[in-house]
Design goal:
- The protein has 79 residues and is mostly beta strands.
- It has one domain: Alpha-Beta Complex (heat- and protease-stable fragment of the bacteriophage t4 short fibre, domain 3).
- It has one helix at residues 34-40, and strands spanning 8-11, 20-22, 27-29, 51-53, 66-70.
- Residues 7-58 form the Phage tail collar domain.
- InterPro entries: Phage_tail_collar_dom, Phage_tail_collar_dom_sf.
Length: 79
């Protein structure tokens, strides 16, 4: 099953699955991630010209579970 782009899940493994990234606040290039930028914009940071940021939800490092965000998948419809 393919996930909706920008969906966020709690993931118990210590690696990023294909088409997912850790919600660690990293900056991404808009040019390489136009669809995800269309959904997130600069809500979590970035300059909105060259880059934007993923949400930073993994501040608790006591356990292996981390939040991940779908970076490539189904584009959610507004209908």
């Amino acid at each position: 099953m393919e996930a909706y782009m920008s969906s966020i899940l709690l993931f118990a493994a210590g690696f990023e699955p294909v088409n997912w990234m850790f919600c660690d606040g990293r900056l991404l290039d808009i040019q390489n991630n136009t669809a995800l930028f269309a959904l997130l914009g600069t809500q979590y940071g970035g300059d909105g010209i060259k880059n934007f940021a993923l949400p930073n939800l993994n501040t608790d490092t006591t356990g292996p579970a981390k939040y991940i965000i779908c970076t490539s998948g189904l584009f959610p419809s507004r209908q």
